[in-house]
């Protein structure tokens, strides 16, 4: 029975906790029916396995149950038993005592881990409960020989606070870390004769990494990143002064880089770069263990991509080139870039305002798709980033250029599975067409309009349902490219009616249909009435399937895009936009990616 439950936990079976409880109940039944045969009596191992199964309960299911309860009761899941894994685990702990089975440190630690998972699911009270269990363990450990707390125990509570993803959680996690540091410093102090001598809790490399990640995920911006860096600096200083201090490892450095990448600070790319250089200098030192890995480089690339610096894409491409060249020099020691590495640079180029950004994005895409290598295969995110870069460009013929790339992506040779398609790349092409109206000939405008219309039809052909952005961008194309008149009015009404029938009307579609046709004409054709002024005045059924669009984007890139020299030197040649300024940052503006908002960049 124990093997079956263990297997269920290891395979993340949703019924693992239920199986564990059934095992314990059945063993007690056999024990009582046998007249108290010890071979049937559940022991410490059985109960610890049960607690472990509860702590690792299916998180995805729990999360859905939690959200449902919040929606129905406007309350934090008070009645969802499966979400309260911490309380359930602690009830098992209490049953152990009632049955005369003394919990050990594994029992307490697993209960804390259950509360950490409960915190990850959004319960703000769970970390405090985990900390309470830790203090209970420390109190009992003073007089019980099998309850000596370990670093894993304290790290579990730190993790519970870190999982909260808030500033308060990060502060609490750091407070525990600082208490552990203080305990470590006073380890040589005397102990009371009534208490047994024990090894004091000490912070581990995992402790430091978890606290730094807590700051990275806290949403605290620059201040949080500075606090994360301060912990790293303090650790490095301690290591220089004592070789017995915790040895900073790659995970700790990666956490500090992640804190800057998520900070939103205009200098986050520079700060992340500095930490990378520090790792490269220290990793040959036997007293440090900080060899940069692919996560390190990808975090630095992400920091540059998010920095808003005018040369962010140039700097990101420089890091990528460094990865490729170092990998060639010594494949054993240096990590190879993966698809995420390339996609992050593509994302940086898609947001760049430098001239030729779309050309750099396409060149990088070709490099990824070289026929002489199979390690890196462009995905949907890669293509979408390049399409977005083209849509934002001011070069003539961008609609046709985007459409050709989309057609290549849809070809079987690209490697993109049609089941993976989303509206994102189609929306980028329609948006490229919509903004082909300025400084272009009438012939190009007609071509761009045709591309917008055929792309919308192409979505349905490939079983991709248009979303609200698809309809909004298509209406924008009509407003920008088609001369005013009844033909445009009727075409816009027909498109908007389909959008209404599918319940996808949002601000973009509503605003653009009013640009396409006079409001009076829209009122007459759709029987709106004179009271309709804003989106909120429209029938709710027209908006029933809308939701807030995620800012997270996935880009995908295509293999061979024509004849090109795919060497590294050509990819990172002097054709790249010049580094116009090391410190200059473009003015901060509130914009959305063009394929999402449909607005001109």
Summed up, the helix count is: 27
Give the strand tally. Answer: 0
- How much of the polypeptide forms β-strand, as a percent range? under 5%
**What Rg is obtained from the alpha carbons, in whole angstroms?**
29 Å
Structural class: mainly alpha
Please bin the fraction of helical residues.
55-70%
The largest sheet, given as strand count, sense and whether it forms a barrel, is: none
Q: Uncertain spans, ≥5 residues at pLDDT below 50? A: 59-82, 188-197, 548-570, 572-601
Compressed to H and E, one letter per element, the order equals HHHHHHHHHHHHHHHHHHHHHHHHHHH
Oligomeric state of the chains in view: single chain
The residue-averaged pLDDT reads 84
- Global morphology: globular
In whole angstroms, the N-to-C terminal distance is: 62 Å
Key words describing this protein structure:
globular; 601 residues; mainly alpha
Structure notes:
By secondary structure, the protein is mainly α. 60% of the residues lie in helices and 0% in strands. It has helices at residues 2-10, 16-33, 44-55, 59-73, 85-98, 105-120, 126-141, 151-162, 167-185, 205-216, 221-241, 250-261, 268-282, 294-306, 312-329, 339-351, 357-368, 380-392, 398-410, 423-434, 442-461, 468-481, 486-501, 507-516, 519-526, 568-571, 594-597. α16 packs parallel to α18 (380-392). It is globular, with a radius of gyration of 29 Å. Residues 59-82, 188-197, 548-570 and 572-601 have low confidence and may be disordered.
